[in-house]
Design goal:
12 strands, elongated, D-Maltodextrin-Binding Protein, domain 2, 294 residues, alpha/beta, two-stranded antiparallel ribbon, 10-stranded mixed β-sheet, 20% strand
Length: 294
């Protein structure tokens, strides 16, 4: 299986906020504790430094409310280390300005195969999704963009994201309703706008990045279907493996992180599912909740 390789700024360049990204470091470590480095260790002195975005929910924020915050807390707890953040808005400067100068030990939510730094095994897979009102008989069973039932539908899309080209290949461009991302927009704002229009009936459906769509849709008063788009017949597959970015040439640290992910995958899945994540396995099959009541 070949996964489409997203850009290094996948969460916003693929989603909503590429225009809003800046390259400057916006704050220092929240725990200004000394760091004792060894040549191949991922962390030292009982401190693990995590690079994350301070304003990018549901992924992370400086209040610790995102699922990547929860994952960072889990990692620190398993390593019995103190957690410290380097806050950095995601953009093309994130890797050279963090891993490039060894400012941190982990970059949260790093897309598999990007190639700028080393990455771990994926800790989750997800995809773009089709969102529509539950019970809409005209869209029941639609799970790929080549379905002819979509041809006359008004479909919301965030401008500049990968599904735009796939929709065009499938003849859906004429009725596409793109929503742009402004510099002042929050990470979920365009997605929330599209989902609100789906709920109201102004739009029939939306093609959106799964983690954002699932997070926003779970708060909708109108029940919504969130269908992963992993069966595309035309264009690249829209399934992504998401990893932890780590420093190159640190094989022991990579082994430690891969082992931690493998041993705690059920707990990681539970965190993701709490945020409405359309969680998939490496083949694009839905991952079931660990407990029936979830």
């Amino acid at each position: 299986m070949t996964l489409q390789e997203p850009s290094p700024i996948w969460k916003r360049a693929l989603c909503v906020k590429a225009a809003a990204l800046t390259i400057g470091l916006v704050s220092a470590l929240i725990l200004p504790i000394g760091f004792a480095r060894t040549q191949d260790s991922g962390f030292g002195g009982g401190l693990i430094r995590v690079c994350a975005d301070p304003d990018n929910m549901p992924f992370s924020n400086d209040k610790g409310e995102g699922f990547e915050n929860k994952l960072a807390e889990l990692i620190a707890a398993k390593l019995r280390a103190k957690l410290s953040y380097v806050w950095f808005p995601e953009g093309s400067g994130l890797v050279p300005n963090t891993m490039g100068n060894e400012s941190c030990d982990i970059v949260m939510g790093y897309a598999q195969g990007t190639g700028l730094i080393e990455d771990t095994n994926p800790y989750y897979y997800t995809s773009y999704v089709l969102v529509f009102r539950k019970g809409d008989p005209s869209l029941a069973g639609v799970d790929d963009l080549s379905d002819k039932r979509l041809l006359d539908k008004k479909i919301g899309i965030v401008a500049g994201t990968p599904p735009v080209s796939i929709m065009a290949i499938n003849g859906l461009a004429a009725n596409a309703k793109p929503v742009g991302a402004s510099a002042a927009a929050g990470a979920t704002d365009p997605v929330a706008e599209i989902i609100a229009k789906i709920a109201s009936g102004e739009l029939d459906a939306g093609v959106l990045w799964g983690p954002l769509a699932g997070y926003v849709a779970q708060s909708s008063k109108v029940p919504l279907a969130v269908v992963p788009l992993v069966k595309e017949k035309l264009g690249p597959r829209m399934l992504y493996g998401i990893t932890l970015g780590i420093r190159p040439n640190a094989p022991e640290w990579k082994h430690t992180m891969n082992k931690l992910i493998a041993e705690n995958q059920t707990e990681i899945n539970d965190i993701l599912l709490d945020y409405g994540m359309p969680l998939l396995d490496a083949e694009g099959n839905p991952v079931k909740p660990a407990t029936p009541e979830r």
